[in-house]
Structure formats: structure tokens, C-alpha cells
Amino acid sequence: xxxxxxxxxxxxxxxxxxxxxxxxxxxxxxxxxxxxxxxxxxxxxxxxxxxxxxxxxxxxxxxxxxxxxxxxxxxxxxxxxxxxxxxxxxxxxxxxxxxxxxxxxxxxxxxxxxxxxxxxxxxxxxxxxxxxxxxxxxxxxxxxxxxxxxxx
Length: 152
Prior knowledge:
The protein is an alpha+beta fold and 152 residues long. Helix content is 36%, strand content 24%. It has helices at residues 22-25, 50-62, 72-84, 100-105, 126-144, and strands at 7-11, 17-19, 34-38, 45-49, 86-88, 95-97, 111-117, 120-124. The strands form 2 sheets. Strands 1-7-8-4-3-5 form a 6-stranded antiparallel β-sheet. A two-stranded antiparallel sheet has the order 2-6. It is globular, with a radius of gyration of 17 Å. The termini are far apart. The mean pLDDT is 89.
């Protein structure tokens, strides 16, 4: 999955299946190995190609000198991220199934918001997404309209 953009309101059926928008499905090859996993910080679910997910987890450690098997915090975080991920696939109707545990944990019901964010899809509860958008609007103003000499 590459260059995913846009925000789409979709229905989730009683079995927890939600259809991906057509433009998202175009970027996913048939039979692709997908992963659905909780975001570590955003109150949503991430859907990645499995290889992209593993690369994303590895990249998290690059900014701190790389993954260190002797660092208990590193081991604990990687175990959490890899253990929380679940294999997933798009069915013949272009839907992905969200487990009951994830639906409960992330407040997902019949209405969800799908967001294309580069190489991943995010699945949001509409209220949580609206709250995140409000925080982003405030941050946008802070980041885009400050002078280059302002340091925060």
C-alpha cells in the first residue's frame, strides 16, 4: 500500500467487517498479507502490509540507536507491538474484519472513519477522529504560522 490519502465514513456490519474504499483497494494486491494492529498513541487501528508493519516497528527504534535486545524497555515495546498485531485480509467484497476485542477497545460500532495515511489505513471511531482533528487543527496553526526564529 502506497500513497494512501483521504478520509471516508463507512459502515461496519454486525460481524465487524468494514469495506475499504475503492481507491484503497486498488493499492492492495489480491491475497496481500495484511496486519491490523492498535496504534500505540492515536486511539485507532492501523492496517499495514505485513512487511511494512514490521519495518515500521523497526523504524521506531532507529531514532534511539536501534533495537537493543539487552534493553528491557525495547524488548517490552517490541513484544507489545508484535503481539498486538493480527493477520488480516480483504475478503472478496473488499472488507477487512475487526476483532470484537479491537471493536470494544477502540469504541468501534456501526459507523467508522477510514483514513489513508501514506502506507497505512487507519480505522477510527467517528468521535475519536473528530477529537483528533481538533487537536490537529490547533497544532497546524501552531506549526504553520510561527516564525522561523520561534523555538518550542
